[in-house]
Design brief:
- This protein is an alpha+beta fold.
- The chain has a single domain, classed as GMP Synthetase, Chain A, domain 3, CATH 3.30.300.
- It is built from five helices and four strands.
- Strands 1-2-3-4 form a four-stranded mixed sheet, covered by helices on one side.
- The protein is elongated and about 50 Å long.
Amino acid sequence: MTTVATRSAVVCALALALVGCTQPPAAQQTTPPTSAVVEERAQQKAALDAYVEAERATIPAIKESSPGVYSDISVQAVYPSTIDYHYVYVQQVDPTAANDYFESSMETLQALCDTKVFPAMASVGVTDPQKATYTFDNADGSELWSHTFESS
């Protein structure tokens, strides 16, 4: 028993002696972004804001072409280069059926992004990495489905 106690005491003493003996990590030097980087970020933000405004202008037409389907549609910018489309249904829909439908539509939505959304974003100056998030909520506000598509 004395040998075990002695070994334990030695291990504890070594552990205590070693605490604080390691070198702290070197402080990372951060260099402020160059004026070119700051300008590029500002241009990206302005380009995404312009694209979001253009997409928001289409909301009345979407609601008109699908009366009684959506109680709310919103489009938001998520910087630096993501557009967020958010749809809320007027009436409750079955969550499982909705999820199955959207999951089966992923290829179609990716194709829509690749052929329409991302080229339109690029045309106003939004560069890689372009992303588009689609979120659909039930009438009670619960999320039915959401996915972020990336430029492929």
